[in-house]
Design the sequence.
């Protein structure tokens, strides 16, 4: 029997209750009856006493920093006051864990804690869109990326604001345990297992959009997802939405934070990943079913989006026990 993956929630005074709740919901709920692997989540702090949070809440740690040496993954919640210096013992523990090769993920303003530890120097990182400039100013050695939901650089992961922490946690489950485990957790949480777009869509809304346009684009996206194998262009999608190509592209960008073709490619990559993980379909067939047309085209987009090839992705993420042909 495989030992449960060991997750460390690293707690410091002032951590955000939402981040703690997300980490706990993903890794501290028993869903083994739904095919999700067992996890061992531990709440780790520098001392044994309660860790205060905003709103009169507190977290009771069950392990000290020494337990980080046993963790398979460390997740760092953000702080309500992102200027609060992290305890030196916490920073030292993070550095030691990183030196051992333990993957570390920070949610939202948790990036400031990793930056204080020097773990983001020379790396790409992200945080809430309202904090990106501050992160640049306080930590100029960090390359701050403004427009992703989450990203990784080596064995370090960071995420954008609030709900993007859910996206990152589910993605970490997916990369370790496969798409079906992440999807089962997402269904339980009533959220999407994989969101597309960037946090740019949340930065500002200069003008309200007509309900008709929003409804038309929602219906259009649903149609495209149901017909990924078909060729689509901006013109053909715009015609189906009842808009001119220029108006369609503008409204699509405002609604999703990305262009129609980038969204479509991202959806095709996501669909191809699932087929590669869960079926025995030959790679050319996967390319046909997901609308890439050819293995060469799919390989190019996998290289751009995932820095790997479809063949290598299948080798790394295939779920032997869950393989099955999918319905045509």
Sequence:
């Amino acid at each position: 029997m495989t030992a449960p993956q060991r997750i460390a929630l690293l707690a410091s005074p002032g951590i955000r209750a939402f981040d703690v709740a997300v980490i706990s919901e993903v890794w501290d709920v028993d869903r083994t009856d739904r095919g999700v692997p067992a996890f061992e989540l531990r709440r780790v702090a520098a001392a044994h006493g309660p860790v205060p949070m905003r709103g009169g809440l507190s977290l009771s740690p069950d392990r000290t920093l020494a337990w980080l040496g046993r963790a398979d993954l460390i997740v760092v919640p953000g702080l309500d006051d992102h200027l609060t210096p992290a305890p030196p013992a916490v920073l030292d523990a993070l550095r030691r864990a990183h030196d051992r090769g333990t993957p570390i993920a920070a949610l939202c303003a948790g990036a400031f804690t990793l930056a204080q530890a020097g773990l983001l120097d020379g790396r790409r990182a992200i945080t809430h869109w309202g904090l990106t400039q501050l992160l640049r100013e306080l930590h100029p050695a960090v390359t701050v990326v403004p427009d992703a939901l989450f990203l990784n650089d080596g064995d370090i992961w960071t995420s954008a604001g609030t709900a993007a922490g859910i996206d990152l946690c589910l993605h970490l489950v997916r990369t370790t345990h496969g798409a079906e485990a992440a999807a089962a957790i997402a269904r339980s949480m009533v959220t999407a297992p994989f969101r597309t777009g960037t946090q740019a869509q949340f930065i500002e809304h200069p003008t309200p959009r007509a309900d008709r346009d929003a409804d038309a684009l929602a219906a259009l996206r649903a149609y495209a997802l149901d017909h990924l194998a078909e060729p689509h262009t901006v013109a053909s999608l715009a015609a189906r939405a009842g808009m001119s190509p220029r108006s369609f592209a503008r409204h699509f960008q405002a609604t999703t934070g990305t262009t129609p073709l980038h969204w479509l490619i991202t959806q095709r990559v996501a669909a191809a990943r699932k087929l590669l993980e869960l079926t025995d379909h030959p790679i050319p067939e996967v390319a046909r079913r997901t609308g890439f047309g050819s293995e060469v085209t799919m390989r190019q987009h996998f290289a751009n989006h995932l820095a790997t090839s479809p063949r290598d992705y299948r080798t790394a993420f295939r779920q032997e026990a869950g393989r099955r042909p999918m319905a045509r």
Summary: Confidence is low (pLDDT under 50) at residues 197-212, 320-328.
